[in-house]
Specification:
It contains 11 helices and 13 strands. By secondary structure, the protein is of the alpha/beta class. The strands form 4 sheets. The protein has a 6-stranded mixed sheet, sandwiched between helices. A 3-stranded antiparallel sheet has the order 10-7-11. Helix 1 crosses helix 2 and helix 1 crosses helix 4. It is globular.
Length: about 325
């Protein structure tokens, strides 16, 4: 198996066509077809399904595609690390951010990267936490912001920030709490709660707290898309219990209202994670430091609402 075969295969899947991939790769189509046939013979599996509409990956091909991307990314990182060994950080760094964090962190981080490290290209991936864990473990991304649920021992994890979770409704919602400054958990779960699925870092924390207080969470509308969750709240289908970061724009405009939870505070902790097995390039290490600096600044200046930066070992 050769690296060029991996590049060829990834290009075919990305372009959905042998002919388009051949043009991009500057290789004759018969030669490209022969390389893929050799790859399939070596793996003893059909990787591509060919039809009049184009080419798509088979189930085996989809699995191989993920591994091929990870291998090519690590080769690129290795080359970049050698090239940067005596110079300023440069190259491409892939950072994964949960959907519910990107509203607070993504734009300030992109601005800081352009100002501080103009020779670094930052690729931001917005995904559910479970998907980010898979991509970080395989090496498809260099860094990921993950929810610290006590199960991050497989990664090199640096504490980032703790966010307070709030009861959030539409400004004039039927599920609002009037002039009350805070809301009990018992009162909050009386409303239909619009929450992400159990694979999301917030949901298990809410479920555990409800059970610990001898209650049950019954009236749940499960939505994993932040955009759809916003629309559902604005349509007054229900309320939610979340940090304010994903709904910050709506809260600042006055379209939504956030109330703190009374009693024992409910929060989530975020950590910046890297693989323990794949070394960071100079560029990735620079981005890692910058993410932490930007996070600290956002918390210190109050731009990351209801969040505080966590202490880190020196």
């Amino acid at each position: 198996m050769e690296l060029r075969q991996l590049r060829y295969f990834v290009a075919i899947v990305d372009h959905g066509s042998l002919s388009r991939a051949a043009r991009v790769l500057h290789i004759a189509q018969p030669a490209l077809t022969q390389q893929i046939r050799q790859l399939e013979e070596e793996l003893a599996a059909q990787l591509l399904h060919r039809s009049a509409q184009g080419v798509i990956a088979t189930d085996a091909g989809k699995i191989f595609y993920e591994h091929a991307q990870a291998i090519l990314k690590q080769v690129m990182d290795a080359r970049s690390a050698v090239a940067q060994s005596n110079g300023k950080p440069s190259g491409t760094v892939a950072l994964g951010i949960p959907q519910s964090v990107s509203g607070a962190l993504a734009l300030p981080l992109l601005t800081a990267i352009r100002a501080t490290y103009p020779e670094i290209t930052l690729l931001l991936t917005e995904e559910l936490t479970g998907n980010l864990i898979v991509q970080l473990r395989s090496g498809r991304i260099n860094l990921a912001v993950l929810f610290d649920d006590g199960q991050l021992s497989a990664f090199a994890a640096t504490p980032m920030v703790e966010e307070q979770m709030m009861y959030i409704t539409r400004a004039d919602s039927q599920y609002g709490v009037g002039r009350s400054k805070s809301v009990t958990l018992a009162r909050a779960i009386q409303a239909p709660l619009i929450l992400p699925g159990l694979q999301h870092g917030v949901r298990p924390r809410i479920e555990n707290r409800v059970r610990a207080q001898g209650m049950t969470l019954e009236n749940v509308i499960e939505i994993n898309s932040v955009a759809i969750l916003k629309s559902a709240i604005l349509a007054d289908i229900g309320a939610t219990i979340l940090p304010v970061a994903p709904l910050l724009a709506e809260i600042e405009r006055g379209d939504m209202v956030a109330h703190p939870m009374s009693g024992e505070p409910m929060s989530r902790t975020l950590a910046l994670c890297a693989s323990k097995n794949i070394p960071l390039t100079n560029a990735a290490a620079a981005v890692e430091r910058l993410v932490l600096d930007v996070t600290d600044d956002l918390c210190r200046t109050g731009r990351w609402l209801h969040a505080h930066a966590l202490m880190r070992s020196q």
